[in-house]
Design goal:
It contains 14 helices and no strands. It is an all-alpha fold and 301 residues long.
């Protein structure tokens, strides 16, 4: 059975309350991902180093869980999906070091648009007026946020493009994971964090001085990095991937737009980032694009 038919024949069901609450909570915490990034920047880990250290700190316990937890053999599609999710998390974290939190969050949340395109083009979903409206409204929101300009130069532009690419990578990963039955959650998490480490490491080599952290490394910094990685990043990643196994990509991306609330709100309140009418209206349009596109969630039997 091909992926399109498999997708169309999956039973439609409303998500359980516990599953919905867990995924919404993970989304709110992703919106606050800038907090550990900024803390580590305060210790001297600038640029992609903060994101790299968090991914590495989360990978260690993920590998321990992978080694001791029962898991199934991974199919190639599962591996590719997990890698895409890891790339998404890495690029999103690094984008927070280069651009405003508000812009990073909103640009990432073109993810529902990418998910809609993927489902309609590759997973057998039919185009509807809602799909077209969601695309138009979401892209209008991005145009407003960027104030009609395409950022091409400077660190801010780099962060913007990373956030945009992170949303696309997330949508590809979620769609690939959802399209196959019964992947192993411990394997998915370990593979995703491994991909995040490799992606962040490549960004470190390309975008920063590889030796710069030597002067700031301390036992306290290692402890803080490990604490955030093991008790923040890893659990949130675990719940997010668990949700990706239960809900369709478009539905999952919609539920995760709760991140806009915590990310945009906290960035404006605690970081004093500019949040004028273009950002306000752009955020409304992106949220509206995800809302009109919401569909009955699909849950695996």
């Amino acid at each position: 059975m091909n992926n399109a038919n498999q997708y169309m024949l999956l039973p439609k069901a409303s998500p359980g309350t516990g599953a919905l609450v867990a995924v919404i909570l993970s989304a709110l915490l992703w919106g606050l991902y800038w907090v550990p990034i900024r803390v580590l920047e305060g210790y001297g880990l600038t640029g992609p180093w903060a994101g790299f250290s968090l991914s590495l700190a989360a990978l260690v316990p993920a590998l321990i869980v992978f080694c001791f937890a029962p898991h199934k053999k991974m199919q190639s599609s599962h591996i590719l999906g997990a890698i895409a999710v890891g790339v998404a998390i890495s690029l999103y974290g690094i984008s927070l070091s280069y651009t405003d939190v508000i812009r990073a969050v909103l640009l990432f949340y073109l993810a529902p648009v990418w998910s809609t395109l993927i489902e309609c083009l590759f997973m057998g979903r039919r185009w509807t007026w809602r799909s077209v409206l969601a695309l138009l409204v979401s892209f209008a929101g991005i145009i407003l946020i960027c104030r009609g300009e395409v950022p091409l130069e400077g660190a801010g532009a780099l962060g913007d493009w990373m956030a945009l690419a992170a949303g696309l990578a997330w949508s590809v990963g979620a769609a690939t994971i959802f399209a196959q039955k019964n992947p192993s959650l411990p394997s998915l998490v370990a593979t995703s964090m491994g991909a995040a480490v490799l992606t962040s490491g490549l960004c470190v080599l390309l975008l920063s001085d590889f030796l710069s952290p030597i002067s700031v490394i301390s036992a306290q910094l290692i402890g803080v990095s490990f604490g955030f990685g093991a008790f923040y990043v890893l659990p949130v990643m675990l719940v997010t991937l668990w949700g990706a196994l239960r809900f369709s990509p478009a539905t999952m991306s919609f539920v995760l737009t709760a991140e806009i609330i915590s990310g945009v709100g906290s960035g404006a309140i605690f970081l004093g980032e500019p949040f004028g009418w273009p950002e306000s209206l752009g955020a409304i349009l992106i949220g509206l694009g995800a809302t009109v596109e919401v569909m009955r969630p699909i849950k695996r039997s």
